[in-house]
Design brief:
By secondary structure, the chain is α+β, with helices and mostly antiparallel strands. Helices cover about 30% and strands about 40% of the residues. It is built from two helices and three strands. Bound molecules: coenzyme A (COA). Coenzyme A binds next to α1 and α2.
Length: about 80
């Protein structure tokens, strides 16, 4: 997910996650997984704050402009 730069820091990310989780709970989904680059401090802070935990590191799992980056697998049990 992504929030327009002009609207970052005003609760939109929290609202988007909350809406996803409400939908998932209504669909009897018990677990949500996500993948985030290990350098993405704002996103990781958002996910931790809302109860997602790091379950592992996917090393060199994405290549951007010829550079490999690590990603965290994070998950939350609803
Ligand atoms: C990550 C992202 C979705 C957060 O959305 P947002 O609307 O700015 O976040 P919110 O205003 O709802 O903030 C909720 C929480 O996220 C964390 N957070 C948000 N921006 C942060 C920042 N710049 N630094 C540290 N923590 C941050 C905080 O825990 C914050 O809670 P707080 O305000 O009580 O401290 C947004 O920064 C974004 O679109 N980033 C670019 C795209 C991206 O990286 N998407 C995720 C890919 S996995």
């Amino acid at each position: 997910m992504g929030v327009l730069r002009s609207h970052m820091g005003s609760g939109v990310g929290l609202a988007l996650l909350s809406a996803c989780e409400s939908w998932a709970a209504g669909a009897d989904i018990r677990r949500i997984e996500l993948i985030v680059m290990t350098s993405n401090t704002p996103a990781i802070a958002l996910y931790r704050r809302t109860g997602y935990e790091i379950e592992g590191t996917r090393r060199a799992s994405i290549r951007i402009d010829g550079v490999d980056h690590d990603q965290f697998l994070m998950a939350k049990l609803l």
